[in-house]
Structure formats: C-alpha cells, structure tokens
Design goal:
This protein has about 280 residues and is mostly helical. The chain is built from 15 helices and no strands.
Length: about 280
C-alpha cells in the first residue's frame, strides 16, 4: 500500500495549486464587487444563506453534531491511525499538511477577526447545537480546513488510475468533505463563505503537505519501528481524550473513533515488541 501511495504522490503536479488560488481570487473579486471586503458587509450579505442552511441542517441536530466533530483533528486522525503501519507516507504528508493548516487557520483568523454568528445575530433566530461559538474567529472555518487538509492527502494517496474511477473518487471526496464542512453552518458556528474559504485553504494545505513530504525527509522516521513508542503514547493520549469526551458529551462519533484506535494500538504495540 505504501508503495502505491508514494507512486500516486509522485504524480501530483504543482499546477494543481492554480484551481484553489483562482477560486480564492474569484471570492475576493465577488466580495469586492459587493463592497463586502469589510466585516459588517461580509456578514450581512451571508445572513439569508446562513439562516437558510442553518435552519435546514439544524433539523438533524444529533446527526449534525456527531458529524461536525470530524473537523477536530484528534477525531478525524484517529480513524487514520492504521495507516501508520500500512502507509506511513500518508502520515508524513498529514503531519506537514496539518502544520501548514494550523499556520493558515491561526494566522488568518487573527488577521480577519470576523465575529461569529452568535455574536452578530439574535441567538433566538437560528439553531445553535452544542456549545455556543463566540468571539471573533469565524473566518476561515478551522474545522473545514482540517477536513479538507486530511481529505486532500487521502484523495491523492488513493487516486485511481482509470478516468471514470478517478472522477467518481474525486466527486465522492469533495461531496463528503463539504457535507462535513457545512455542518459548521448547521451548528451555528460559521457563515457559508467561512466554510468554503476554509475548505479551499485546507485543499492548499493538503497539497503543500504532499509536496513537503515528497521533497524533504523530515518525517521519514514515521516508517521506523524504533519510533513506534511515540505513536503508542499519542494513541493512548487520544484514547484518554476520547473517553473524557464520551463522559462529557456521549456522542456516537467518539465511540467510533475510540474503536478506530484500538486495532492500530494493538498492531503497533505488537509490531514494536516483535522487532
């Protein structure tokens, strides 16, 4: 599996950055044309679309609240821990991509400082699921960045060779990614453009992670068994965190993530002892 992933990553071209950059430019031009490059107008032009999406997604509160947890890096990466053993190149890319996404997320949130919907709108006018998101860190959506960063790394890792399969795989990944990302609007934490922009930035971060891991070997230690205790410790820490989340929120997604860690934990421990 790891050989196939390396081969697929070798085919990824820098020209793939042109689409997300073009989309970001198009969004900026759209906002400029609507005189909405400042915070107040940015929020107001999205009010109707935010309320529409929030209302309809909010009707499925339990499902939405579970799905939106996948935007948490510790949750979504729990499901991918098995690749530490079978496709460590994915994790090399994920580490670099996650660091890039963190820089983008923290940096842009501090630059734009867009107030959350709960700060701007009457809280009785829209659905809020879970803990109310407040503050001035709405743009971009960090959860959306995390989702698309991860999905982009997986998208190119398992890209099929035949065109029909490739098209279906790309569509499936994008639709699934946006389904998860837009739950942030459903829980009342973000505006639609926060999610779209965050998703585009996540795609850029994922691509960056692939190129970094391809050119530099800074994370090549992931493939060495002598470093497995690091992952054993991290998995145990994630298990403790998930158990705490289960106690506090008792969501199905946390149980699934915990189950997703058990098999890799056993296999990694076994592989380390066997060496």
């Amino acid at each position: 599996m790891n050989v196939n992933v390396i081969d697929n990553y070798s085919k990824v071209k820098p020209s793939l950055f042109s689409l997300p950059i073009s989309l970001l430019i198009a969004i900026v031009l759209f906002l400029f044309n609507r005189d909405s490059l400042h915070t107040d107008k940015y929020v107001q032009i999205q009010k109707d679309s935010f309320l529409f999406i929030n209302y309809h997604l909010g009707q499925f509160s339990d499902i939405i609240y579970n799905i939106t947890q996948l935007g948490d890096a510790s949750i979504i990466l729990s499901f991918l821990s098995i690749f530490i053993l079978y496709a460590p190149k994915i994790w090399e890319s994920l580490i670099s991509a996650s660091l890039a996404s963190l820089i983008f997320s923290v940096g842009l949130k501090n630059i734009f400082r867009v107030p959350r919907p709960a700060v701007v709108f009457d809280n009785n006018c829209f659905v809020i699921i879970g803990k109310k998101a407040v503050g001035h860190a709405s743009l971009p959506s960090g959860h959306s960045i995390t989702v698309f960063t991860t999905f982009t790394v997986l998208l190119f890792a398992f890209m099929p060779e035949k065109l029909p399969s490739k098209i279906l795989w790309v569509l499936f990944t994008i639709i699934t990614g946006f389904t998860i990302a837009f739950t942030r609007v459903g829980v009342g934490a973000h505006y639609p453009l926060d999610v779209i922009i965050g998703s585009i930035i996540g795609y850029i971060s994922g691509l960056a992670g692939i190129f970094i891991s391809r050119k530099y070997k800074i994370w090549s230690w992931v493939n060495h068994k002598k470093y497995y205790p690091i992952f054993i410790f991290l998995i145990l820490a994630c298990c403790v965190s998930l158990i705490n989340q289960i106690i506090c929120k008792n969501l199905i997604i946390f149980y699934l993530a915990l189950i997703g860690l058990i098999v890799p934990f056993y296999k990694i421990v076994y592989a380390f002892i066997k060496k």
